[in-house]
């Protein structure tokens, strides 16, 4: 299938303060593609470059070289106006539902803002707002209330509704459930999946939480020090990681359920054995 988003050899460097200080290279030649309707999970430790990659796709990071193509068209280095035109295709949901919504605006205004900017009439926008609220499981009277009246989980539903208002084909989700409690996380994750099944939207789903990424992703990419060290389908990467960093990352992740703990123990044993030389394995087995 043709990719919706194709990133090739992407280098992003942040300028450093100070005379003659060399810029900091946050992405060191990243290549990745996302297909229509696919969720690409992006995991990696803090500082590995996940958010930078998401921001580069949104045109918010200083790209030094490489390319980002959306539907075959180069989108890095677009002017502001061209970027704005692209916002109906590429949207974002951020981590913090408290700072990403203006607390004093009504939900109706928050959701109709992107619609009016596209020239949608007031009455059509009202209808679309009602539809969007329904899509994310909020009552229609939410339109008259203000963002400050809603819980974190509800606010994240509103942020998702806002991202969906223009029917984008790709949403960059940057840690969209990290600020929520576990039960709310599960509900919001299911909402992401349900919306995708209905609309065919693709997600670049950034999270430091492996169980979250496993739950939503078709494929998973692992970042390490500004590079992607492994990409594969979720099961492959999580159950049979190839890169030593991915193996460490997955073995260190907490596994709350006793059955999963048992599976994890077996996986860990297998990995340790696989890393041993044949003679070490034989002698270990003999003990
Ligand atoms: N605006 C900036 N200016 C300078 N350096 C930056 C900037 N933004 C990020 N960095 C650096 O780039 C590297 C990658 O940061 P990034 O936020 O992309 O990582 P991350 O994997 O998303 O981390 P986290 O999971 O903690 O959000 C880090 O070393 C960070 O300090």
Automatic annotation (TrEMBL):
GO biological process, one term: transmembrane transport
Domain ABC transporter, residue spans: 5-250
Gene3D superfamilies in UniProt: P-loop containing nucleotide triphosphate hydrolases (3.40.50.300)
One Pfam match: ABC_tran
GO molecular function: ATP binding; ATP hydrolysis activity
Keyword terms: ATP-binding, Nucleotide-binding, Transport
SUPFAM superfamilies: P-loop containing nucleoside triphosphate hydrolases
Coiled coil: none
CDD domains attached to this UniProt entry: ABC_NikE_OppD_transporters
Transmembrane segments: none
Family that this chain belongs to: Belongs to the ABC transporter superfamily.
Protein name: ABC transporter ATP-binding protein
Organism: Labedella phragmitis
Lineage: Bacteria, Bacillati, Actinomycetota, Actinomycetes, Micrococcales
